[in-house]
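$ fold --in a.seq
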Amino acid sequence: MLQFVNGHNADMRCRIASAPVALLSRAAFVSDCLLDGQPRFDEMIERGTIRVGPMDRMDAKHAVFRMYLLGPFSLVDSKGKSATPRSQKAQAILAMLALSARGSRSRVWLRDKLWSDRSEDQAAASLRQALLDIHKALGSSRDLIIADKNTVWLDMDRIALDTDEMLRSERLVDQITDELLEGMDIRDPEFEDWLTVERQNWYRRIEEGRVDDVFEPRQQPRRDVSTLSALLPLTGLPDQRPTNIPSAAVGTDPDKPPSPDNIQWTIALQPPIVIGAGDGGQIAALQFQNLLAKAIFDGLGLGITDLSFDPHLGQPDRKMGLPLCLQLRLTFDGSQVLVELAIKHLLDNRIIWLGSRMIGRTQMERSEYGVAAALISQAVDQLSLFHELSAGDGRLTRDGLFVDAVNAIFRLSRGDLEKAEKRLQEQIQYQPRASAFAWLSFIRTFQVGQRFSALDAHVIEEAQAYARKALELDPNNSVSLALVGHVHSFLFREYDYAAGLFEKSIRLNPALPLGWDLYAMLHCYAGQPEKASAMARWVQELGVYSPHKYYFDTTKCISAGLAGDHVAAIAAGEDALHSRPNFNSLLRYLASSHAHTGNLEAAHQYVERLDKVENGFSITSFRGTGYPLLNTGGGKLLLDGLIKAGARIR
């Protein structure tokens, strides 16, 4: 449980503030239990797609140790002397840290992966012993690995990895025969799952080099093959409405005439069409369709009817609400696949919306959808629009409360946020969905960030309570995980914990732009704006047709401004400003970026607008808000720009 004041978060801030720069340089991908599905930005760095400073990547000539991950694991110092621990689990810890994005893992994550069959106390004791084994093997260089009560770090600035050297050597795929961590036999199913994913990621890195693929998280291996079935158990949560609400009140009475209050919104999925492929193509289609179903339920809360099993289920009736269906078609042609997704009317099969993308066949068969994931995001946005337009006389269905609330949130005004909160509270009375509680928690971050409330402590406590309730109701709702992750990163600075939530959200639903977007903001808070900018560019690809595109453009503006790319920040920020002219975050970054480019006249105008929106803006008051990232390099750049733009100091 979180303690916001004088407790865990204060400890976290002190620990982050005092940690070595070499360790914090990898906070871009603060990691927890799900990094296995995380995109590999190291690839982009090495190809030059992302420009990074000296803290972001290790310079091999300064490395003290060499770690061999291909073939049998080994660690040697600069003189070639072995520093490899004897215990395989100690070796595994070093490998798992090295393969994480910032060289760090939480103690809980390591225990779960290596001692999943032990009690918590036994696992903790075993981890301590393994760390002692590592320190013993390192001798006088034991500071290569640092551990506190929560986290274990490996100083990656002092290690050269053979995998990095292999990628730079540009050797052909068939020339690389060594297996990642060959012969490592831990005999823990959790570790085996992790190792399987890491080996898949490694093969992907050496086989494919396109930037689009870098962002695609890989599905976690599942031991239960039946979970890949097309039965789609993602049609909704168990009925959780309060027992004092009669069934007729929520539209379950078959004799009651339909009305906006008792229509059940359901979307039908027609059997996918696969052309030019064997069984593998059909499996790929079903996996893509499963992801589509989850995106619809998590994002809109709508039910799903799968017509693959009973075509009569999808016949429109008076309570279906939206007589719509979706159909996926995959056309395999050589090494490419044309992915087409259509929204159709159930009555006459009329196409209402159609989107298509071309991706590689290998990607599709590996469930790495890349840019094709944007189709899912677009389909969800279209369904949201149809849902909104179908209100007709202005009365909302019970399910419509949720969609209307989400749309209101992104209008960002005080009145719209109050309206959204009212809608969500009504939705909870009808059915206490996890995502409704998550959105209520998310609203609190706006209220704190936009300074709508003077009682921030009370607002923060409410955010914490709503976030906890969301995860209790459904720990696998991708939207809830992303929203709660933002709450923990923005309000509580719990970056490690928040990163775990984001990574799980992205693994469950890589087509969710909001998850990627909020994760990009975490990287801004953690002082890694270059990597945040790379993620923001991917978000723009996923959400190019989103009605909330301005929100994603705002993240691009913020991350680019913090990274010093002021031209890109201005372009994205001014695009977003057309939709939300009084969004104070945009005004801050536009003022700063214009000042840094020398356009002081425009910068001063933005400061004047910001002063009106916030009823008196100053650098001192801005610092007093506790806004994340102000103590990072990018934050100092932001403040310097605001001062140049003419913002008052006090």
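$ fold --in b.seq
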Amino acid sequence: MAHEYFVADPPELPVRSHGEKGLSALTAVEPVASDASGVTLKGATCAEETLLVQVNVAGEGVIRVRLGADADARTRSAAAISMVTPGEYADARVDLGDGTVVVDAGSLRAEITLAPWHLRFTDASGRTILEQDRGHTDISGRMRTLPFGRSLAGGAVAGYHESFAAPSDEAFSGFGESFTRLDKRGQRPVMWNFDAFGAESQRAYKNVPFYLSSRGYGVLVDSGTPVEFDVCQSTNSCVQIVVPDDLIDYYVIAGPAPADVLGRFDLLTCKPLLPPKWAFGTWISSGFFVDTQERVLNRARTIRERGIPCDVLHLDTYWQKDGHWSDLQWDADNFPDPEGMLAELDGMGFKVCLWMNPYISHLSPAFPEAAEKGYFLRKQDGEVYVADCWHGSYPPCGIVDFTNPAAVEWFQGLLRPLLRQGVQVFKTDFAEGVPHDAVAFNGMAGTDLHNVYTLLFNDAVSAVTKEIAGHGMVWARSSFLGGQRHSAQWGGDTYTSYPAMGSTLRGGLAHGLSGVPFWSHDAGGFTGRPTDDLYVRWTQFGALSPLLRLHGTTSREPWEFPEVEAQAVEALRLRYRLMPYLYSAAVEAARTGAPMMRALCVDYPDDPVAWQADLQYLLGRDLLVAPMISPEGTRRVYLPAGEWVDHWTGEVLTGGRYVTVSTPLDRIPLFARRGALVPVLAEPGETVGDGTFGEVTLVAYGVGEGRATISDLDGDTTVTAVGDGDGLRVTVSGGTRIAGVELVGADAPVVITTI
């Protein structure tokens, strides 16, 4: 079995010795201050301590709860970065009653009972949507769930905790890019970024301490520490949260629908960054081969000669000299004229992405200067922390310390020349390797820096990219709370198998429900060579994902799979045909925070099956995609309520049920909402490019009422369709030119009116 020589695991929580006291649960409170937006309460605990509780309105439908030893306590990660910014609500109200306090945030209210302490959240009608667990004790009187309070071990605070009651039919999702089942009930996610070595375990590259509930709310914990969520695992009727920080600081966010929660989540954290238009085209990678300028140019020419739609060439590690992957310098022998190469690629319509990471080999010529000037994380004795970040496959490295402004400027200085040469974007790999016992320039411990380090890394790369290239996109592997400002993110180093494709899909859906709409994955799988059929099926999944990259340890170039090249390329052409629809869905996602790749619960939150159906999704609002997840070519697909049209056959199917579908290798199971208007390109080109779409064709799935918004660089166009006798009347308002209408599942005359 492979041995991991270096793993940046979280430290274990301390355990009290037998008989040691240390539980400090809130028992009663009294108001000490209040205003129109919140209340501060002095709390007594079972350990005869005094703690402060603050309950405040942080926006319409958002209530913030803090518990700590003093009013000025803040999460330790705030020393590096602020991840949450509470908002305001002009109509907020606080009502102090006899033994109760009500904090009103419009669509969400917090009702506080002073003695004994209890907290519940209701909607505006008074319906309970969430409340604290009232405590479970066993026959001997011992507590079995964590109370609202804190725990001490060895005389020091081990962490704060909270518990919420969970009805037996409640479903939960989110927590970042979690590759396990979409409904996290019965799981125990820990918010700690791992080098996950695949996409088939609970280890995640991207954690977000936030979850959505099927009862119409979300919970966000503001902490960069390894927060632990026990989602009805220890106790089936309780969600328990442990925060090993200087306080617990969480937000309850009203829905009622997941899209409503995500919109409010964005107001607290940040809006998603819309990638450049060309980024929605195909990205084709060099793979893990020693690369050369000649090979790159031949690859580009072959792509164009074979008519393969592609906008981005990704050069992975070997744009640098083997053994010098940390130098951020072209391999001068294999790339004698990078500026000339980049200019020639630009003339063929290609953007170029380069791989990089924040680890500098101790053998790199860049290492001595950076070490001397304090640009790396250090050990507690002050020495540079040289870590085996590559698990024995590459020399140990220093980890760039992005809490040091001088280190940030130095690192960006390594990237500026590449961007000025014509590189358009960087793949920001790794960044999960901060050891818990490291020390940062700003004094932070590695435990507190570990998760937010990826935000600092991607912020630095995004900023210099925007400075030179004019956009802030990165292609990131790791992320954390607020990482939606770093578009895009991909699913990491997954294995090449059908089960791995399925778990990758689950990770993308969970990440979308965590506020990150622009996500991708290595089409074909990363480790190993996929079988021909898997290559096609995964390429089809990639083609109908928010973003698409063909990448792996072996080649993912379509011509390297000659028996199925035509089927794979046809999937890419379908993507380019759908580009007006995809880009419009992307613009909506950037505006609203709702994902492009939508778990069914986004649009059908009242359907219990929608919280469980995690191997299919809606792409945008109107297309239902069900990637083929087995080599047999047959699977079950859940169609939500309504009527659905098979994209390939035009057959109309009634929803609210599972159907069994079988598709040949050249088709992915794809359905459209009946009545949907899907904008497409009648003659898609080989690139998406930087300009507007020009003429667009509408695909109408059936004759009936439909509406679509077509977003382009020059604004939005609204299209509506209504049945008119035996025909369809289409009205267009906006600048996009509609060339015609194609009907699927119907045959009727069409009249187009432009206003």
